[in-house]
Amino acid sequence: MSRTCRLNCVMPPYILNRLLESEDSEVRRAALNTLLATARLRGERGVRASFAGAAAPGNGRRTIFDCEQGRFLPTAVMVRPEDGPESVDESVNRAFDALGLTRDFYQKVFQRNSIDARGMRLDGFVHFDVKFNNAFWDGRHMVFGDGDGKQFSNLSHSLTVAAHELTHGVTDHTSGFEYHNQSGALNESMSDVFGSLVQQWSLKQSAEEADWLIGADVFTPGIDADALRSMKAPGHAFNNALFGKDPQPDRMSKFVHLPDTEEGDFGAVHFNSGIPNKAFFLAAVGIGGFAWEAAGAIWFESLKASSADSQFQDFADTTFQKAGELFGVGSPEQSAVLAAWQEVEIQIRGVPTGAALARSFAVNGNGGVGRQDGLTALTRQIGELSAKMTGLAKDVAALKKTR
C-alpha cells in the first residue's frame, strides 16, 4: 500500500493553463497565482509531515478552520468544531456539511470508519489564499479556495469537489494507486466515482436520475460550462472560448499520451480518468437503481483489492471478478460490468470477444437489465470462464506461497 502523501487537486491543470491565455489580466493573475501556489505546496513535503499527529483516531470528528486568505495552515483559526454551533459564514457550514456527508456515506454504505477506516479526524480549511481557484487534499487536510469570483465560485460550496478530494484519502489508505499514468488516472477516477456517489446518496437519486457531473457548481453563472468533468459524457463537460473543449477521452482508442511530469499532468491523469469514469457510469446505469448499492460496492471492493501499480486492464478484470463474487457468476450485475468495459474498449481477460454482452443487454424503462434471446447460453459461458479465472488465481497464489 502506498503511503506517499501527494497533493491532490480537483482542478484539471488544462483549465488553469488555458486561463493564462485570457485577455483579462485579473483572470490571468488568479490562474498564475493558483498554479504557483499549487506547485509550491507540492514541494513543501515537510509541511504535511509536520502534521502527523492530526491523523490520530477521532471517530471522524470534523473541525473547520479559517485561513483568512493566508497559506499557512497552522495559523488558521478554528471556527467550527464537531459539536459547535452553526457559523454565520456559509463557506464554513458548507464545508462542515460536505465533510459530514462524505464521512457518513462511507460509514453507512461501506461500514468504513472515516477516511483511513480508523476514525481519522476530518479537518477542513476554508478561505485559503486570495482568489485561489482550487481545492485539495494534502494527505491530512481538506483545503478550499474561494475562487476568483469571475470564472470560479467558492469551491467549498461543491459537495462533489469535497467528496472527490476526501476520496483521495480513501485511495491512499486502500490501493494506494500511484499518481502517474494509468494508475494515476484510476486514482482520479475513484475520486470522481465516489464523489458522484456521495451526492447521489445524499439526494437519494437513482443512476438514471443523477447528472453524473463533477464540480457542476464551481463555475460562476456567467460561464458557459456544465462542470469540470462529466462521467456520463467525458469530453463534453464544456466547450467554450475560455477553456476550449473538454479534452477527456471516453475510450481507449482516444487515450491521451503525455509525459509523466507535472507539466504533463503526470501522464495525463486528469485526462484519461474519463475512460474508467465512463465504464462506471455504464455499469451503474446497466444495473439500474441506486448506483452505490451494486456498482459502487463492486468498485469499492475492487479498490481495496487493487495494487498501487494497477493498470486499466487490471482494474477492469478485478471489477468483473468482484461482481461475480458479490452478485453471482453470470449475474446481470457481472454482465453489466463486462458490457461497460467493452464499451470503452477494454476486454476482460479470459472472456472471448464474441461474448459481447453490450449487445445482449438493454436498459429497460424501470432501470433494470432486460434479457434477450440467447442470453442464457452466454451467461452460462461467462460463468464457466469466471470460475476458471478464479481457479487460476488461486493456483497462482498457492505457487507463490511455496516459493
Could you describe the 3D structure shown?
This protein is an alpha+beta fold and 403 residues long. It folds into two domains: 1-47 and 54-173, Elastase, domain 1 (Roll), CATH 3.10.170; 175-403, Neutral Protease Domain 2 (Neutral Protease, domain 2), CATH 1.10.390. Helix content is 44%, strand content 10%. The chain has helices at residues 13-19, 25-43, 45-49, 90-110, 159-172, 181-203, 265-272, 274-287, 295-305, 312-327, 332-343, 375-402; strands at residues 8-9, 62-66, 77-81, 122-128, 135-137, 141-145, 213-214, 229-230, 239-240, 244-245, 361-363, 369-371. The strands form four sheets. It has a six-stranded mixed sheet, with helices on one face. It has a two-stranded antiparallel sheet with strand order 7-8. Strands 9-10 form a two-stranded antiparallel ribbon. Helix 1 runs antiparallel to helix 2 (25-43). The two termini are 22 Å apart. This is Neutral metalloproteinase.
